Structure formats: structure tokens, C-alpha cells
Amino acid sequence: xxxxxxxxxxxxxxxxxxxxxxxxxxxxxxxxxxxxxxxxxxxxxxxxxxxxxxxxxxxxxxxxxxxxxxxxxxxxxxxxxxxxxxxxxxxxxxxxxxxxxxxxxxxxxxxxxxxxxxxxxxxxxxxxxxxxxxxxxxxxxxxxxxxxxxxxxxxxxxxxxxxxxxxxxxxxxxxxxxxxxxxxxxxxxxxxxxxxxxxxxxxxxxxxxxxxxxxxxxxxxxxxxxxxxxxxxxxxxxxxxxxxxxxxx
Length: 249
Known about the structure:
This protein has seven helices and nine strands; from the N terminus they run E-E-H-H-E-H-E-E-H-H-E-H-E-H-E-E. The protein is α/β, with parallel strands linked by helices. This is Radical SAM domain protein.
């Protein structure tokens, strides 16, 4: 199994599994390259990122679903969240999701770039990171075409799974007009699919400045012309809930 980091969020009774895989995208602003631990563990994660050297691959992993359940022993789990470089590339992800369903009846949430589909039988909600719908912009940021991601988004929606989408607002690359195009693409499937817009924060070695709250709010306003619900997150918004508990990694 490729889980290298596990935290527990008491306020939400959530177990958050971080997977480390050889990602099938080469996103230039990937935060895992700068910080592989959960940002919620640190009071000022952005300050921590300044002048940090690139992260190296983790050396320790949780070996099985059984070990993961043992680590969680004593914690009430209502939600399980699977994130990381790309969770769908972990061959043991479906077994882990099934084990959590069986033991806790947890609400399982997968965050994915959507390039690869895996067995989603024990996933209750899928959050697609769409990044961009304009292929040239997507390629400039990730190094490959967005064809599979957009195709798989449509397939997951057609399957009846609960679906959300997220994207980054990156000044100088993925701007408000591109976010609006993402909203239009989503609305063609279902205008009630929620979109979350994350304001980009500076990653060492990347050329872009951070997105301001005003810029992200404006992008959200434009997306709301096409979708029923749009949320956004920026670096200066206060964290909600208690500090997570670090259980592994």
C-alpha cells in the first residue's frame, strides 16, 4: 500500500490518507513536491514552505488495510478522505476503502486528477481536480493532455456517483476566464455539481505569484453564472476546526 501519512481530524471525525505514487501528471505547482505532510498540522504552512528544498519520497508506508484500521483503533471515523500525489495509482486503494466501509460505515471521499479510473465501488464521493479545460493551458501546467480527465469526469457523472470538482486560480496561467470555462464544462453535465476554486499560493521554484482573495472571489462570481454552488479557498482564510492528530508518517 502507498499510504505514507495518516491524520485524524477530530472536528469532522475524518481519517485523511495521504498516498505517495509516481503521479501520472507533472503539475508544476504540486504542493507535495514542497511539503508532503498535511498542511493542517502547521499553524503557518505558507511560512514553512519558504526556501524549502524539494521533498524526497517517503521511506515508510502503512503496509495493509488491516494495519491502517489498527492505527485508527479508538478513533470514531465518520469520513475517510484519500488524497496525495494520486491515490488511484495505489493498487490497494479499493481494498482500503472497502475495509473502512465495513468497519465504520464511513463516507469515503476520493480526490483525484481523473486521469486513471479505479474501482470506485466503495467511494461515496469523487472530487475531480479539473485544473483547466483548455488543453494548451492544461498541458502547460501538467505536461499532458486533459482528454482522459474530461472523459472520465463524464463517465463518473454518468455512473451516478456524487461528484464535485475543484480547480486552481493561478495568476498568469489559470485565470478567471479559464475558471469560467471550467464552470461551463461542468454545467453541461449538471449545473448542481459543486465547484471549489483554490487560490494558488507560491510554491518554491514556480514563477507565479499567489492569488489574492479578491481575484478568487471574482472567479467564483463568474463561475456562479453557470453553476448553482461555488466555494473558494484562499491562503489567508482561517482554518476551520481543531488541529489534526498525526497518526502515521
